[in-house]
Design goal:
heterodimer; A: alpha/beta; 9-stranded mixed sheet; 13 strands; B: alpha+beta; 4-stranded mixed sheet
């Protein structure tokens, strides 16, 4: 573990970079199989068309007329032609066989995808049931006893964990947690089951919605803070993009005394290529205040944005992003990349969904760093690159792995600092970006290729905004 | 009905513990980035600034959090008569000098300048602000900002913070 100058403890450096999903992922292979099925259908149709159109030669008047002059030859022709068209190995049978193959390809693809989805659902159900079981079956009969049983179950499970923390990790719970971040998936995934068994029927979505309802979202107030003189070089790669996000993360915050938001918490970069084509990149920092309901003091980067985004509701911050894009003069056809750290990544993914459905903006790319976005359905027209440090607990807060679809590339890596903060630090994510820039993984390369207009700018204007409410 | 109440209590207890945990328990505060040394650095720089001729007032704010790099923000009110780009840059350099030679866990410095004839009415009063300077530290080998490179050339390497564990 190394320590930067004047910094929080950070990891030893990024290693074990693994890429899932995207253009080189399993789901893309399923889609390739389905595409092959559709192509095969087309070949079958063409062959069928050839077989049917060939039938007319059997009844062609010239052939019939020739039968008078050469009945044996005509019969031989009719026989051969009939065999070629309608025989067991003829065109018609072949077309049927090809079509059957196409159906098989499509069925195989659908079966694989269904199995993947079933696996995700099964995992979610297992966690739910574990949560319900924690009440000892007493919930429906006596909720008070159920709550007591839940506490007892927590003690039974937590006891050995606590012992492990003290025996194996010297009492360092952060180290334990960052070495077992998957534990959070199970705990969070079990909560709806426990709540249901106690008499509050719920699943992950409804429970998130319930908690989000304590944080009503309002209209944003967006202040244009002018151009950022410190960010005048267009980004050339993922590292530059993540550095830009870090700068915006560092300029925004809240006053710890009053809780009031300070500084710019959003920027829109207008990137103009040498050919004059314009693209826009939006930097969205993470959570700035861990507030109880009604205690945000005007900040839009609080728990309300986290819970409402995860619950599928529009947030004040998302509406602020929309307002900022309008102010920056973004046209519905201009390509837009949304980049976010932690909460910013959740809002980026949710905004991509909403902006695409409304058609107001052409979101083509999303980059998230340490964000739990496994449950957010991002349209397949949007390419998503999600970076996740294996020791970072934050991407586990939704108890869901990212879908392994062709448009969603998830990069996991090791950079173990043994602290929650160190593993969530933007420097780990920036280093991961560096490695992806230098690497040649098919999915990551496909993402970078598709995003080249954001990396090939000749000039950039960084418009700074402050979104409050 | 009782069951629903129990379910709600369970959800609320978990939610409140989760949300408020980082701000309440000292060890959790440190886990979220709080640093006494960083807070003290802000205080000492503010005192240094107030001692400068032409500076009417100076305040410091230490910001930290799970998603926020530990950063210091300064609100500096300068005498209207001293208002000039050169003076504000000199003050900014003084802040960076103090910051650079400390080993406090701070990765960003933001300095907001105001004039005494139009002072701020709140912590961050953008309409009244003359200018804002921002400095971000990137200590990755190929990720240094121009400012960081300049300070390393000017002052040498920044002192390293010993690991907390």
């Amino acid at each position: 573990v190394s320590t930067g100058p004047g910094e929080v403890q950070i990891g030893p450096g990024v290693s074990n970079v693994q890429v899932a999903g995207g253009a080189g992922g399993i789901e893309a292979k399923f889609e390739d199989i389905a595409a092959m099925g559709r192509l095969t259908d087309q070949v079958a149709q063409d062959t069928m068309h050839l077989a049917v159109s060939g039938q007319r030669y059997l009844l062609d008047e010239n052939v019939v007329a020739s039968a008078i002059l050469d009945p044996v030859g005509a019969a031989r022709f009719e026989g051969a032609m009939g065999l070629a068209l309608d025989g067991p190995s003829g065109l018609l049978a072949t077309s049927v066989g090809i079509e059957a193959r196409g159906v098989a390809f499509r069925a195989t693809s659908a079966a694989y995808q269904a199995a993947e989805e079933a696996n995700r659902e099964a995992l979610s159900s297992v966690r739910w049931l574990a949560g319900a079981a924690a009440t000892g079956g007493m919930g429906p009969l006596n909720p008070v006893l159920g709550l007591v049983d839940t506490a007892a179950s927590a003690a039974v499970v937590g006891g050995p964990i606590a012992a492990d923390v003290y025996l194996q990790y010297g009492g360092d719970w952060q180290k334990f947690l960052t070495h077992h971040p998957g534990l959070l998936d199970n705990v969070i995934g079990a909560m709806p089951g426990t709540a249901s068994a106690l008499g509050l029927p719920s699943n992950q979505a409804s429970l998130t919605t319930l908690m989000a309802s304590a944080y009503p979202q309002t209209a944003p107030e967006v202040n244009d803070l002018g151009l950022d003189s410190a960010q005048t070089k267009p980004p050339k790669n993922l590292e530059d993009v993540l550095k830009g996000l870090t700068i915006r993360n560092n300029t925004s915050g809240v006053d710890n005394t009053t809780g009031a938001p300070v500084g710019s918490n959003l920027d829109v970069k207008k990137i103009t290529g040498a050919d004059g084509k314009v693209s826009y990149l939006v930097d969205i920092p993470g959570t700035k205040v861990w507030d109880l309901p009604g205690q945000d003091h005007g900040s839009v980067n609080g728990m309300g944005a986290n819970l409402n985004s995860l619950a599928g509701n529009p947030t004040t911050l998302e509406n602020g992003v929309r307002d900022a894009l309008r102010r920056a003069g973004v046209d519905p056809s201009d390509p837009v990349m949304l980049v976010g750290h932690s909460q910013g990544g959740i809002v980026a993914a949710r905004s991509a969904q909403d902006f695409t459905h409304s058609g107001e903006f052409n979101v083509t790319h999303v980059i998230t760093a340490g964000s739990p976005i496994g449950n957010i359905n991002v349209p397949n027209t949007v390419q998503v690159l999600s970076l996740e440090n294996n020791g970072d607990i934050v991407p586990h807060l939704d108890a869901a792995a990212n879908p392994d679809t062709a448009n969603r590339t998830t990069v996991t890596f090791d950079d173990q600092a043994n602290t929650v903060l160190g593993n969530h630090d933007m420097r780990a994510y920036t280093q991961a970006g560096q490695q992806l820039d230098a690497g040649n993984d098919p999915s990551a390369t496909a993402f970078k290729q598709s995003a080249r207009n954001f990396f090939n700018g000749a000039t950039v204007e960084t418009h700074q905004y402050q979104v409050t409410r | 009905m009782t069951g629903r109440v129990m379910g709600c209590i369970f959800v609320l207890v978990i939610a409140v513990l989760t949300i408020s945990g980082c701000g309440l328990h000292p060890s959790l505060k440190e886990a979220a980035g709080y640093s006494k040394a960083a807070e003290n650095l802000g205080v000492s720089i503010a005192v240094h600034l107030k001692a400068q001729p032409g500076v009417v007032d100076a305040r410091d704010y230490f910001t930290y959090g799970l998603d926020s790099a530990p950063s210091l923000r300064f609100t500096v009110v300068i005498a209207a008569a001293s208002r000039s780009d050169e003076f504000m840059k000199k003050i900014y350099e003084l802040i960076l000098d103090d910051y650079w030679h400390s080993a406090a866990a701070v990765s960003a410095v933001n300095v907001d300048f105001y004039s005494s004839d139009n002072p701020p009415t709140k912590v961050w009063d953008y309409p009244r602000m003359i200018i804002e300077y921002n400095f971000s530290l990137f200590d990755l080998p190929s990720s240094k900002s121009a400012d960081q490179i300049r300070l390393e050339q000017q002052f040498g390497p920044r002192p390293a913070v010993p690991p907390s564990k």
